[in-house]
Specification:
Elements: E1 2-4, E2 12-17, E3 28-33, E4 44-47, E5 54-60, E6 67-75, E7 78-87, E8 97-102, E9 110-116, E10 124-130, E11 136-142, E12 144-146, E13 171-177, E14 185-192, E15 196-197, E16 201-204
Antiparallel strand pairs: 1-2, 2-5, 3-4, 3-6, 6-7, 8-9, 9-13, 10-11, 10-14, 12-13, 14-15, 14-16
Domain Purple acid phosphatase N-terminal: 96-204
GO cellular component, one term: extracellular region
InterPro entries: PAPs_N (IPR015914), Purple_acid_Pase-like_N (IPR008963)
């Protein structure tokens, strides 16, 4: 079995092909990522046609694990595993992902929340703004991490670790950016020196309390 590409970018399609297989009309391929309960536990299943030699899995994203595609062949009244191919993400599964900004009760603060597979170091954010004189002030703040496991769920099937029930959510990191000048544009990155840093994003801090306005961010 062959995978194209051999490693995935965010949102990329995956094409898996094979050679020298006399396919049965009941053959199928499954896509999984992380622990499985059995062969019927998968994210997606695609049936094989006897005239095809490839399938496409669309729009795959970071699930903090390695994708596995398995080919099941119908033989002698049962299904046998004919082959598997592993396809990792191009970026590290520990890389910071899914950053979201939020306001809190302090007018000079902004909260960044993000997700990763790692809690081996303290989550951080670097933020800066260029003042009218052209100089740049850079600030670094640290935050906290939290997560939950299958044992924290109420009862089965939510306590079953697999593709269709409980998937470990990774770690949710929260960091507060403080001492913000009002109505100013800031650039920021979240992550750390061990697991890596996000791309650089920007936001507009809140206006003075007497001003009613939208607060754009992206």
């Amino acid at each position: 079995m062959f995978a194209s590409p051999e490693s995935l970018d965010l949102g990329q399609d995956l094409v898996v092909s094979w050679m020298n297989v006399h396919s049965h009309p009941a053959d199928y391929l499954t896509l999984s990522c992380g622990p499985t309960v059995d062969k019927d536990d998968y994210i997606e299943r695609i049936n094989v046609t006897t005239s095809s030699s490839s399938v496409r899995f669309e729009d795959l994203h970071m699930l903090r694990c390695v994708y596995v595609v398995s080919y099941y062949h119908f033989l002698n009244a049962s299904f046998v595993l004919l082959g598997q191919v592993n396809v990792p993400m191009r970026m590290s599964i520990d890389s910071p992902q899914h950053g979201h900004l939020a306001l809190n009760d302090h007018i000079d603060q902004m909260v960044i929340m993000y997700n990763s597979a790692s809690n081996r170091t303290i989550p951080s954010v670097k933020y800066s703004r260029r003042d009218p004189s052209g100089s740049t002030s850079v600030f670094v703040r640290s935050g906290t991490s939290s997560t939950y496991s299958a044992s924290d769920m109420c009862h089965m099937p939510a306590t079953i670790v697999g593709q269709q029930w409980f998937r470990h959510p990774g770690y949710m990191h929260t960091v507060v950016m403080d001492s913000l000048d009002l109505n100013a544009t800031y650039s920021y990155q979240f992550g750390n020196d061990i697991d890596g840093w996000s791309a650089t994003y920007s936001f507009q801090s809140r206006p003075p309390a007497r001003v009613i306005a939208c607060v754009p961010y992206h």
